[in-house]
């Protein structure tokens, strides 16, 4: 009997900490609906007659509206609570999926992307913010890793297989899967009951930060946000255009599997590494890995009709490692840069970097590919990633290693 408390403490991990199972289930269903449409909504627009620039604008609009929503989410939580905010977000993300069946006309696809973006903005800020509320700082890297796996797992399965499913099983199957966020309303409400029950002083919306302190809160977050923007520009571009940049459908599917699979493992495992060693030893190598992966990919698709499969697979795998790893490390950096009262601000700013980069990647590569080639577009994206390298060395005091026995 004397060992019961110790055994109970041992049994509690970041996976089963109070509120975490509901958060992970909500995240998995929400990101499933998001992931399945990320490569196929642009493909649906091409099916309706859009060119590469038009296809790229689909995810650019999605991410623009995501970012706009993210700036408002902390205020929405403060004013209407987690319950209403989360429920509205999941509905906005899931309902538009089936409406794609009405038409593939670009204007309609863009409108539906805008609505999905609003819902996705709610899901991303609330999800990352909830991690900071549910788990203590000493285990936050591991919690971010678990949260990241709930995101990356659906992406691994659905981003890579969705284009194949659309072309072989029909777009209707894909759009039906896109409604999965509606199933996430139930765990979202369970999560909201726990978060809405917190003491009022625990809220972390930016409105609670005194106006003179706003600059002190936001400035330290710019470095992780911009560093994240670089790698998500790369990831967003590859996910958006993988079905179009290569004439080898097998290599394309394999590349997407490697990109999303390595990202899933990397985002999960870098959490424990960040808790033990801090983030600095890993940031700059991952930036270089991103540029190297994009360069290999550019070489592979220099002639789309004769895609080089080995460089394509290797390039997308390398980008996947950095794509997942830097997501984890920059979120740890963002939470470490602010106090607990401002974790909602950190979540919003980090997500703006993530989704802003995804939108920039879709738009930049789409327009460069239309005017020149996908190969040139990926080389330009590699240069953009390398431009963020100085940020990987900056701010070393933000994330000292946190020793934990938990």
Structure summarized in a few sentences:
The protein is mainly α.
Order of helices and strands: HHHHHHHHHHHHHHHH
Task: Name the shape in a single word.
Answer: globular
How many H/I helices? 16
DSSP summary, beta strand count: 0
Describe this structure in words.
This protein has helices at residues 4-11, 20-37, 40-47, 52-94, 96-99, 106-134, 140-168, 171-177, 185-196, 214-245, 249-277, 280-300, 309-336, 343-371, 374-386, 389-393. The chain is built from 16 helices and no strands. Helix 4 (52-94) packs antiparallel against helix 14, helix 6 packs antiparallel against helix 14 and helix 10 (214-245) packs antiparallel against helix 11 (249-277). The relative contact order is 0.16. By secondary structure, the chain is mainly α. 78% of the residues lie in helices and 0% in strands. Residues 4-10, 199-212 and 396-406 have low confidence and may be disordered. The radius of gyration is 20 Å and the shape is globular.
Output the keywords.
mainly alpha; 0% strand; disordered C terminus
List the helices and strands and how they pair.
Layout: H1 4-11, H2 20-37, H3 40-47, H4 52-94, H5 96-99, H6 106-134, H7 140-168, H8 171-177, H9 185-196, H10 214-245, H11 249-277, H12 280-300, H13 309-336, H14 343-371, H15 374-386, H16 389-393
Helix pairs in contact: 2-6, 2-7, 2-9, 3-4, 4-6, 4-9, 4-14, 6-7, 6-14, 7-8, 7-11, 7-13, 10-11, 10-13, 10-14, 10-15, 11-13, 12-13, 12-15, 13-14, 14-15
């Amino acid at each position: 009997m004397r060992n019961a408390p110790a055994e109970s403490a041992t049994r509690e991990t970041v996976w089963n900490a109070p509120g975490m199972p509901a958060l992970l289930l909500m995240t998995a269903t929400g990101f499933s609906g998001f992931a399945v449409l990320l490569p196929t909504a642009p493909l649906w627009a091409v099916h309706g007659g859009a060119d590469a620039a038009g296809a790229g604008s689909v995810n650019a609009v999605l991410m623009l509206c995501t970012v706009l929503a993210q700036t408002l989410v902390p205020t929405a939580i403060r004013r209407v609570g987690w319950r209403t905010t989360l429920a509205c977000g999941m509905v906005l993300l899931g309902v538009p999926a089936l409406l794609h069946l009405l038409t593939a006309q670009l204007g309609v696809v863009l409108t539906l992307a805008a609505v999905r973006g609003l819902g996705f903005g709610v899901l991303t800020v609330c999800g990352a913010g909830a991690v900071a509320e549910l788990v203590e700082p000493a285990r936050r890297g591991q919690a971010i890793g678990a949260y990241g796996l709930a995101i990356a797992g659906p992406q691994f399965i659905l981003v890579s297989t969705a284009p194949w499913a659309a072309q072989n099983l029909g777009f209707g199957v894909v759009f039906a899967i896109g409604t999965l966020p509606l199933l996430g309303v139930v765990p979202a409400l369970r999560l909201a009951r726990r978060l809405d029950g917190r003491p009022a002083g625990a809220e972390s919306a930016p409105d609670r930060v005194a106006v003179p302190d706003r600059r002190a809160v936001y400035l330290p977050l710019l470095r992780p946000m911009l560093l994240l923007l670089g790698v998500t520009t790369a990831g967003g571009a590859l996910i958006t255009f993988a079905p179009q940049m290569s004439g080898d459908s097998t290599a394309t599917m394999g590349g997407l599997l490697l990109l999303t699979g390595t990202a899933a493992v990397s985002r999960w495992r870098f959490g424990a590494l960040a808790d033990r060693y801090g983030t600095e030893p890993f940031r700059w190598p991952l930036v270089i890995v991103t540029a190297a992966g994009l360069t290999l990919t550019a070489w592979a698709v220099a002639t789309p009709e004769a895609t080089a499969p080995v460089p394509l697979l290797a390039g997308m795998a390398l980008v996947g490692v950095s794509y997942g790893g830097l997501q984890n490390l920059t979120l740890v950096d963002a939470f470490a840069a602010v106090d607990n009262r401002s974790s909602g601000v950190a979540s919003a700013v980090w997500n703006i970097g993530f989704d802003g980069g995804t939108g920039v990647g879709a738009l930049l590569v789409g327009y460069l590919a239309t005017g020149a080639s996908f190969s040139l577009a990926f080389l330009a994206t590699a240069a953009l990633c390398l431009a963020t390298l100085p940020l990987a060395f900056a701010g070393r005091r933000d994330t000292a290693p946190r020793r934990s026995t938990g």
